[in-house]
């Protein structure tokens, strides 16, 4: 069968700080191709809807697959599905990905018959079987993870091994458009999949059933050798949870003489526990590290069930600095913040050298706070669920909340963007421009055109064609198994040694640290 894989357009924050290749969709495309199907791909982050229609007319696919990893992209996907069905009604349309896996039935009902099915869970595990079943005229409700208006198939399954499916990177037409910070261009790679923790605001663990699986160091090194981009973003939810695995990859990279520059995300407690791993990685190309601190005080950390003390967070920052790493941290701004709280955060951000990113508390389907957030949503517009808009009642009037939010985010602009950033990175910027890479340099002046309180407020006034169903009743307690897309497999689903498993348990729940 002929298959067109489609990644939706960029979200608000990706218009400035980064633009990552759609690795998840590349893996699905790779699995479909391995199953013998003819696959093409388009990424609407870097191409247009006109490009999509041109490719559709030229390729005449039998199936169009959309990646629905982000809730804010749901309206665009629905619009494309409706328009595609109108123009070419024989095309079968499949939507998969992280976010739509939690809201499959809702998306199908909004699509009004234009979507053939939702494929829940790991798309690269079932896409080949789904396409084969379609081609043979079989019952797609026998395929794991399939949901249609008529019913639901067996539970989603995992890929047998992370080593068996490789991303179809060659299908993307504009690889020089992907970057993160000064890593321009940058490719993305997966060392491990899943997360063994259980933070209340996150749906990574509920999607993967608290599993944690790893790719072999040899396969990872093979992939790194094939990637032409000099920059690498490691997409793991928490990098180097397992010390031995991280060290084995580093040793394989050193043995082969692979020269890349790396950016990764991790937790402060993982960094402090596995100091030697991060030290070795800093010697083989690790330059940037993102730490999701979420809060700067104990009360805030407790709210998110992040059992990393504030002292440990600051200790981790000190250690990362000692390795010469550039550190970015994320702080979650709660709608309950007042002017004084915003001012406190601004002062703190100015006192530290790290890059500070501010996101907004956002209940997502699949997270505990979706069911437990007693404040109730103030909007049902999918487009506003992008961690940059307030979707819960704000203590300050909404215009003032956005003024304070952007004023605080401007700290990042003042410290790390514009002429100051260009002065600090003059050598890097000049090299990138000589090589024809303009993503990073253009980013330095985009902040004010994207992060604007008037524009954010206006977003709330836009008519919404697609509304979320009414939020579920608030519950005092929840059976966490009901949250999972992939059912929990327990200890056997986590590629961790016993000491690391105990470390995870101690840092995710229980008595206070």
TrEMBL record:
Residues 8-141 form the B12-binding domain. This is Hopanoid C-3 methylase HpnR. It holds the Pfam family Radical_SAM. Its cofactor is [4Fe-4S] cluster. One of its GO terms (biological process) is methylation. Residues 181-395 form the Radical SAM core domain. GO terms for cellular component: cytosol. CDD domains: Radical_SAM. The keyword Lipoprotein does not apply. InterPro entries: Aldolase_TIM (IPR013785), BchE-like (IPR051198), Cobalamin-bd (IPR006158), Elp3/MiaA/NifB-like_rSAM (IPR006638), HpnR_B12_rSAM (IPR027564), Methyltransferase_Class_B (IPR034466), rSAM (IPR007197), rSAM_sf (IPR058240). The keyword S-adenosyl-L-methionine applies. Keywords: Iron, Iron-sulfur, Metal-binding, Methyltransferase, S-adenosyl-L-methionine, Transferase. GO terms for molecular function: 4 iron, 4 sulfur cluster binding; cobalamin binding; metal ion binding; methyltransferase activity. It comes from Acetobacter garciniae.
């Amino acid at each position: 069968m002929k298959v067109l894989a489609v990644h939706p357009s960029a979200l608000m924050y990706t218009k400035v700080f980064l633009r990552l290749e759609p690795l998840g969709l590349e893996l699905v495309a790779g699995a479909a191709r391995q199953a013998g199907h003819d696959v093409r791909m388009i990424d609407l982050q870097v191409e247009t809807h006109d490009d999509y229609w041109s490719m559709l007319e030229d390729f005449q696919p039998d199936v169009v697959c959309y990646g629905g990893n982000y809730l804010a992209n749901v309206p665009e996907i629905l619009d494309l599905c409706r328009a595609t069905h109108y123009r070419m009604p024989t095309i079968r349309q499949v939507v998969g990905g992280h976010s739509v896996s939690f809201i499959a039935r809702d998306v199908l009902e909004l699509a009004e018959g234009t979507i053939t099915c939702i494929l829940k869970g790991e798309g690269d595990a079932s896409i080949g079987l789904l396409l084969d079943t379609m081609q043979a005229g079989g019952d797609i409700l026998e395929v794991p993870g399939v949901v249609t208006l008529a019913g639901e198939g067996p539970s989603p399954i995992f890929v047998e091994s992370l080593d068996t499916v490789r991303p179809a990177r060659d299908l993307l037409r504009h690889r020089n458009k992907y970057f993160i910070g000064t890593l321009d261009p940058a490719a993305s790679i997966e060392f491990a999949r899943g997360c063994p923790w259980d933070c209340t605001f996150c749906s990574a663990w509920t999607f993967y059933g608290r599993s944690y699986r790893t790719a072999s160091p040899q396969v990872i090194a093979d992939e790194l050798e094939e990637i032409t981009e000099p920059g690498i973003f490691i997409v793991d939810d928490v990098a180097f949870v397992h010390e031995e695995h991280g060290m084995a990859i580093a040793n394989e990279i050193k043995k082969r003489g692979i020269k890349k520059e790396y950016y990764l995300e991790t937790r402060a407690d993982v960094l402090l526990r596995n100091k030697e791993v991060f030290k070795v990685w800093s010697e083989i190309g690790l330059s940037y590290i993102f730490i999701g601190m979420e809060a700067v005080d104990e009360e805030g950390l407790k709210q998110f069930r992040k059992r990393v003390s504030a002292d440990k967070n600051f200790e981790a920052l000190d250690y990362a600095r000692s390795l010469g790493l550039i550190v970015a941290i994320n702080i979650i701004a709660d709608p309950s913040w007042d002017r004084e709280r915003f001012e406190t955060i601004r002062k703190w951000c100015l006192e530290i050298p790290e890059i500070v990113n501010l996101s907004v508390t956002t209940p997502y389907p699949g997270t505990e706070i979706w069911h437990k957030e007693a404040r109730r949503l103030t909007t049902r517009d999918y487009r506003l669920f992008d961690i940059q808009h307030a979707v819960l009642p704000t203590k300050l009037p909404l215009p003032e909340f956005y003024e304070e939010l952007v004023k605080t985010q401007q700290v990042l602009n003042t410290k790390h963007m514009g002429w100051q950033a260009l002065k600090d990175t003059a050598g890097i910027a000049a090299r990138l421009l000589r090589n024809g890479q303009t993503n990073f340099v253009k980013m330095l002046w985009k902040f004010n055109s994207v992060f604007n309180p008037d524009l954010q407020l206006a977003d709330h006034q836009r008519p919404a064609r697609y509304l979320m169903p009414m939020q579920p009743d608030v519950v005092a307690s929840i059976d966490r198994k009901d949250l999972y897309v992939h059912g929990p497999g327990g200890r056997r689903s986590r590629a961790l040694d016993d000491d690391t498993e105990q470390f995870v348990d101690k840092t995710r729940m229980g008595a206070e640290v």
